[in-house]
Design a protein that fits this description.
By secondary structure, this protein is mainly beta. The protein is built from seven helices and 29 strands.
Length: 499
C-alpha cells in the first residue's frame, strides 16, 4: 500500500491544475464527430446504428482501428491560458503574476464545465447477411468525465471575497463525475421498407473505476470579517482500489492506492469481462430516403447506466465550519504561495469529509446524445450534409450544428469539409480524409479546427496559438474492409453491384 501525504498531494494538485487548464481548452467527451457522420467509414454506425457501411465486411483491429479523443470546456480558450508576457519573447500562464485575472474572469459563466472523453476501439467487426441485414460487434475502452464549476466559486477565488461580504454563495450547481469502463456492443441495421432503414445497438458495460459527487446542498457564506462559513450536504462515491486513512476525528488524513491491484496478472477473458461493476446501454437510429437524392436520419445514442458494486468507498460532508477563504489574488500579488493556498484549501476539504461505514453501491448514468441529419446528393460522388447533435450531461445541454460538403469516389476515396457552430464558437472547421488501397482503409478526422491564429515569440521561437479554441476532436485509425458496394446509375431503378 502506498500513501500520499499532504505535501505530495499539494505538489501534485499544483501541477495537475496547470496541466488540466491546458487540457480543457480542447474538447473531449463523448461528443459526436460531425465529420465522421457522412464519411464512408464503418465507424459511423457508432453515431447512428442505422448507417450501413459500403463494405460487406469490415474488421477493426485493436487500437489501430480507432483512437478517439475529445476535450471540452465552455468558458475559455487556449489563448486565455497562455499569453504573451511583459518581458520580450516570454509566455506566461494563468498563474503568473503578470497575468491579468480580469481577462480570465470576463469568460466566466454561471455554470462552467469541462468534459474530457477518450475511446479506444479494441475490436470491431461488421458483416452483411444477405441483402438488407448488417451485423456489428464492437469492443471499446472508454473514459469520460464531466465537471461543472459555479461561476461564483471562480469569482471568489480570482477576485476575492469583498463583493460577496454578508451574502451566501450558492454552489449547488457544482458537479463532478468520472468513469472508466468497457463496452461490448452488438448491433444490427435492416431495411424495413424500400426507403426506411432502422438500426439498434445493445451494450453490456463493464465498469473499471468511477468517482462521483451527489451534491444536495453546498454554499459559502462570506462573513462581515471576511472569514467564510462553509455549509455542505453532499456525498462522494468511489469505486476504485483506494484506502482512506482517518484522523482522530474520523476525518480524512491521507489516501492510499493499492498498487498491487494493478500488477495482478490476468488472462484476456478476465480483463474483458470484469463483472464487478456492470451496466447496460442502448443506441437506436433510423435513416429514411425521401427521394433518390435526399436522405434524413435520426439517432439516440449512449442511453445507459453502470451499477458500481466493487471497491466502494462512500464519503459524506454534512457539516459547517469556518475557514479564512480562498483568494488567488494573494498568489498573484506575492503575499501567499500557491502551495500555501493549496494547503489551506486541502485541509479545509479534508476536515469537512468523513468516511461512512455503509459502502453502499451507487449508479451513474451515461451522458447521451440526440442526432438529426439530412444529406442531399448533388451528384453520384458529391453531397451536402446538415447535422444537429445535442448532448445531455446532467442538467446541461450541448448543441452543435454542422454544414458539410462530402465527396465519395467509388468508396475508395472519401473526404469531408465541415463548418460547425458549437460551444459558443462560430469559427470551427472540420476535415476528414479516408482512402482504401486494397483491403486497407486509412482515415484521419479532425473536428473544430480553429480558423484564426495568433503568434507569440518566445526565446526567438514563433509559437502559433489559436485565437479562439476551446474545442477539438481527433480520430484516426485503419480498418480492414472487404467487398465494395458501389451505386451505379442505369436507365432503370438503381441497383447495387459488388466490386
Amino acid at each position: 500500500m502506498v500513501t500520499v501525504n499532504s505535501e505530495d498531494m499539494i505538489r501534485k494538485i499544483k501541477y495537475l491544475t496547470v496541466i488540466m487548464l491546458g487540457m480543457v481548452v480542447f474538447e473531449a467527451a463523448a461528443q459526436n464527430s460531425q465529420v465522421l457522420y457522412y464519411m464512408n467509414l464503418p465507424q459511423n454506425h457508432m453515431l447512428n446504428p442505422a448507417l450501413r457501411p459500403s463494405n460487406s465486411v469490415y474488421i477493426g483491429l485493436p487500437v489501430i482501428s480507432g483512437i478517439n479523443v475529445n476535450l471540452n470546456n465552455n468558458f475559455f480558450n487556449f489563448s486565455d491560458v497562455f499569453i504573451k508576457g511583459v518581458v520580450p519573447d516570454s509566455v506566461v500562464t494563468i498563474f503568473h503574476p503578470d497575468y491579468d485575472p480580469a481577462k480570465f474572469m470576463s469568460k466566466i459563466k454561471d455554470v462552467n464545465s469541462f468534459e474530457p472523453d477518450a475511446l479506444v476501439q479494441l475490436f470491431g467487426l461488421g458483416f452483411a447477411v444477405k441483402k438488407d441485414l448488417y451485423i456489428t460487434l464492437d469492443i471499446n475502452e472508454r473514459v469520460n468525465a464531466n465537471v461543472a464549476l459555479p461561476g461564483d466559486l471562480l469569482r471568489l477565488g480570482f477576485e476575492g471575497n469583498e463583493q460577496f461580504a454578508g451574502s451566501r454563495i450558492d454552489l449547488s450547481s457544482l458537479r463532478a463525475e468520472a468513469r472508466y469502463y468497457r463496452e461490448i456492443a452488438l448491433g444490427f441495421s435492416k431495411n424495413f421498407t424500400t426507403d426506411l432503414r432502422i438500426g439498434a445497438r445493445a451494450k453490456v458495460l463493464f465498469g473499471i473505476a468511477s468517482a462521483s459527487i451527489d451534491n444536495r446542498d453546498l454554499g459559502i457564506t462570506v462573513n462581515d470579517d471576511y472569514n467564510h462559513t462553509f455549509n455542505a450536504d453532499l456525498d462522494a462515491h468511489f469505486s476504485a482500489p483506494l484506502q482512506f486513512y482517518l484522523s482522530g476525528q474520523n476525518t480524512i488524513d491521507s489516501v492510499g492506492i493499492d498498487e498491487a491491484r494493478f500488477e495482478e496478472t490476468r488472462n484476456i477473458i478476465d480483463y474483458l469481462l470484469e463483472t464487478g461493476n456492470m451496466g447496460l446501454g442502448f443506441d437506436i437510429g433510423a435513416e429514411y430516403k425521401i427521394s433518390s437524392k435526399l436522405k434524413v436520419s435520426a439517432a439516440v445514442t449512449d442511453l445507459g447506466y453502470i451499477k458500481w458494486n466493487k471497491d466502494i468507498t462512500n464519503l459524506r460532508a454534512e457539516s459547517e465550519f469556518v475557514f479564512s477563504g480562498i483568494d488567488l489574488l494573494e498568489v498573484y500579488n506575492g503575499t501567499m504561495t500557491f502551495d500555501s493556498l493549496g494547503t489551506v484549501l486541502l485541509d479545509s476539504l479534508k476536515n469537512s469529509f468523513y468516511l461512512t461505514d455503509t459502502d453502499e453501491p451507487f449508479k451513474t448514468t451515461l451522458p447521451f446524445g440526440v442526432t438529426l441529419g439530412g444529406n442531399y446528393a448533388l451528384s453520384r460522388s458529391f453531397s451536402l450534409g446538415l447535422l444537429s447533435y445535442t448532448r445531455f450531461v446532467g442538467s446541461q445541454i450541448r448543441e452543435a450544428l454542422t454544414l458539410s460538403a462530402n465527396v465519395n469516389i467509388r468508396n475508395v476515396f472519401s473526404t469531408t469539409l465541415a463548418y460547425t457552430a458549437m460551444n459558443h464558437r462560430y469559427d470551427n472547421l472540420g476535415f476528414g480524409l479516408a482512402f482504401k488501397p486494397g483491403c486497407f482503409q486509412f482515415y484521419l478526422l479532425a473536428d473544430r479546427i480553429p480558423v484564426t491564429w495568433n503568434k507569440i515569440i518566445s526565446e526567438g521561437t514563433t509559437i502559433p496559438l489559436p485565437t479562439s479554441w476551446n474545442t477539438v476532436h481527433i480520430r484516426l485509425g485503419m480498418n480492414l474492409v472487404f467487398g465494395n458496394r458501389v451505386e451505379k446509375k442505369v436507365d432503370k431503378p438503381m441497383i447495387m453491384l459488388q466490386e
